[in-house]
Design the sequence.
């Protein structure tokens, strides 16, 4: 009988660590958390951890509090491809946190990660944001409002919340249109009161502020955008992605877009093809990483 022999993995190459429930902010006594995916080797001081590009991931939640672990099994592959990944919470609109609370929170999370870049082996000059549904709405707004004083809190104020690339999956880009489309959905009115306040006469103006489609400014430098959307989406109409694509193009912004044939909202949208497209798009912010 033969005992087989294999080499050890001294550099712990390909091993991924989940750092759970990292508190990045506390608003009105409410802790806001993120989970961080990083190389396992970071646990050990004797192993060198070169800075890696960062992906900040915002899970869709209808602007409620996101479930951080929703995409973690799929996001592991991005750590193996050379990134640090942080999936972040924001405040729940149904708990009385109207717009722009969720946007302020995501921006604070980005600044927190830059402030702690050395601790987590992050390269603060290479930061991408990626969101799904309402999280994609937040991601687009982050990219279109870099360091905007309207949405910047006092926390980590010396850090930037600007990003180098943005990935948007089935985002509400026109919030006015989104809620027209959802007018018959149970709970839609409650969500609008929670997001936009108690005076419906002000809602359309706030919805436009919350619509990435209307936040593209002439003369502003923006990062590259990747837009993906299913053409059978029953929650956020597919045409919103096309509208956003054309608006960015008209302003001279670098943008790629993919129509996912027959895909509904979330559900059958995802495939390895999607993840590979995201990797290819983000590759320019990468550089070789030694584990």
Sequence:
């Amino acid at each position: 009988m033969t005992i087989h022999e294999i080499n050890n993995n001294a550099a712990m190459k390909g091993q991924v660590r989940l750092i759970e429930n990292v508190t990045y902010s506390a608003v009105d006594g409410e802790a806001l958390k993120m989970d961080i995916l990083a190389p396992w080797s970071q646990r050990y001081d004797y192993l060198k951890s070169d800075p890696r590009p960062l992906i900040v991931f915002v899970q869709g939640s209808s602007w409620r509090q996101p479930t951080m672990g929703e995409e973690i099994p799929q996001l592991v592959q991005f750590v193996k491809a050379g990134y640090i990944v942080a999936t972040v919470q924001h405040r729940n609109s149904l708990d009385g946190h109207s717009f722009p609370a969720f946007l302020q929170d995501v921006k604070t999370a980005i600044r927190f990660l830059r402030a702690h870049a050395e601790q987590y082996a992050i390269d603060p000059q290479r930061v991408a944001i990626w969101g799904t549904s309402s999280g994609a709405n937040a991601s687009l707004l982050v990219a279109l409002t870099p360091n905007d004083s309207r949405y910047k809190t006092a926390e980590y104020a010396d850090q930037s919340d600007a990003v180098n690339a943005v990935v948007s999956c089935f985002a509400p880009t026109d919030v006015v249109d989104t809620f027209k489309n959802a007018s018959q959905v149970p709970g839609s009115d409650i969500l609008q009161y929670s997001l936009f306040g108690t005076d419906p006469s002000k809602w359309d103006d706030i919805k436009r502020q919350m619509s990435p489609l209307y936040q593209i400014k002439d003369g502003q430098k923006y990062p590259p955008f990747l837009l993906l959307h299913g053409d059978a989406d029953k929650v956020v109409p597919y045409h919103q992605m096309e509208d956003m694509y054309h608006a960015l193009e008209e302003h001279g912004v670098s943008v790629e877009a993919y129509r996912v044939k027959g895909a509904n909202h979330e559900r059958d949208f995802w495939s390895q093809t999607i993840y590979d497209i995201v990797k290819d798009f983000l590759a320019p912010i990468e550089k070789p990483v030694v584990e």
